[in-house]
Amino acid sequence: MRRKAYLFVLTLLTFSCIFSLNAQDMGSRGMTAEEYKLAKSTTVENLDEDTYVKVGEGDYVLDRYEMKPPYFITGDSGIKKRIDTYKFIERENMDELGLVVYFTNTEAKETFNLVIPNMATAGEVWNMYFDDIHQHDREEGDVALKMSYVLSKEVAYLLQKSSGADMSAMDQNNSDYDFCFTADALVNMADGSKARMEEVKVGDVVLGFRNGVFEAVKVEGVSIHAKQEIALTKILLIPTEQVSASLENTFSSEAQALVATPNHPVWTAKGAKALGELSHGDQLYYYDAQTHSQKSYQVYAVWNNYSATERVYSLSVEGDAYLVDNFVVMEK
Predict the structure, then answer these.
(1) If both were cysteines, with which of 1, 136, 237, 325 could 297 make a disulfide (CB 3.0 to 4.6 Å apart)?
(2) What CA–CA distance (Å, rounded) separates 105 from 82?
(3) What would the pLDDT profile of 244-273 be if each residue is shown by its tens digit?
């Protein structure tokens, strides 16, 4: 038992250290006790679809870690356990304060979470985490062992990433700055005009989408990220009503394209989905300015690693959804 606990602690500390070094803001502060309690009380309604969740009054967010799918582990009990990881981020300064790990018993349909602080966090908050994992390990069984496995896998991932190795083979995970658009992406403004993403400011009124209705919403925040190379994905869409065999090699004048980082969520007929995860046939919501109503467009093709840029932008708006090039997209 002591050996298992020692290996878990060693793996956890190694992962937390590397995770802190790989955070976007190298000066990230530590997590406070109140923030720990807030993160611990946060639930995710749909772990399959909710990749970005506002916490509390929106001052914090849960951002799915590296947009990775969940781990599924079956131990001696024969019951499959699901483990999902999210970054816990303070929105104002984009400080990555730690991770929130959701541990689900798929048979009992019960989920609890564990909050892992970053390495800048004070010892008293770390003690809160160790108390929690010890309690859950007694109640659930082998929680620490399963967490050790998951964290070990992530240590290997972060080590390879930090070494400068080519990560392009890891699908859309090659972008450190998710959920963003290029400077020339056109944002639909509430007055019917369009503005380049780089020109949109806090307080501007854009066209949003809430409860199936297009309406004016205010921009609450603008985030700008710069890096030597940020990968972009491009999708080509055609009106669903025009889909036919004749379009196999010919596109109508109404064909549309959308370009963004691969993890930016767009609103589809089946809910939010990352751009890079779209496939042929997925349906997106398109704004018809003439009728002020939605129109269905279908994905025809997806090109991951289509191009790259050095600067990307994202907006925070009232209601979480706005329009880029007439398509409904979700905020970061």
Answers:
(1) 237
(2) 7
(3) 544 444 555 578 999 999 888 898 988 888
Cβ–Cβ < 8 Å for 223, 313: yes
Q: What are phi and psi for residue 124, nearest 5 degrees?
A: -65, -35
Q: Compute the distance between CA of residue 122 and CA of residue 116 in angstroms, rounded to an integer.
A: 12
How would you class 168 by CB atoms within 10 Å of its CB: exposed for 0-12, middle for 13-18, buried for 19 or more?
exposed
Q: Answer whether 32's CB lies under 8 Å from 125's CB.
A: yes
| CA 74 – CA 321 distance, rounded (Å) | 38
- If residue 39 lies in a helix (H) or strand (E), which one and from where to where? helix 33-40
Cβ within 8 Å of residue 250, ≥6 positions away: none
- Which H/E stretch holds residue 221? strand 213-239
The dihedral built from the CA positions of residue 30, 35, 41 and 47, taken in this order, carries a sign that is negative
DSSP state of 318: T
| pLDDT confidence tier of residue 107, bands split at 50, 70 and 90 | confident
Residue 231 has pLDDT above 90, yes or no: no
Helix and strand counts by DSSP (H, E) for the chain? 4, 17
Which of 124, 104, 126 has the alpha carbon at shortest distance from 115? Answer: 126
**Cβ atoms of residues 18 and 119 within 8 Å:** no
Q: Which of 41, 76, 46, 64 is nearest to 146 (CA)?
A: 76
Candidates 187, 176, 174, 226; CA nearest to 316 is: 187
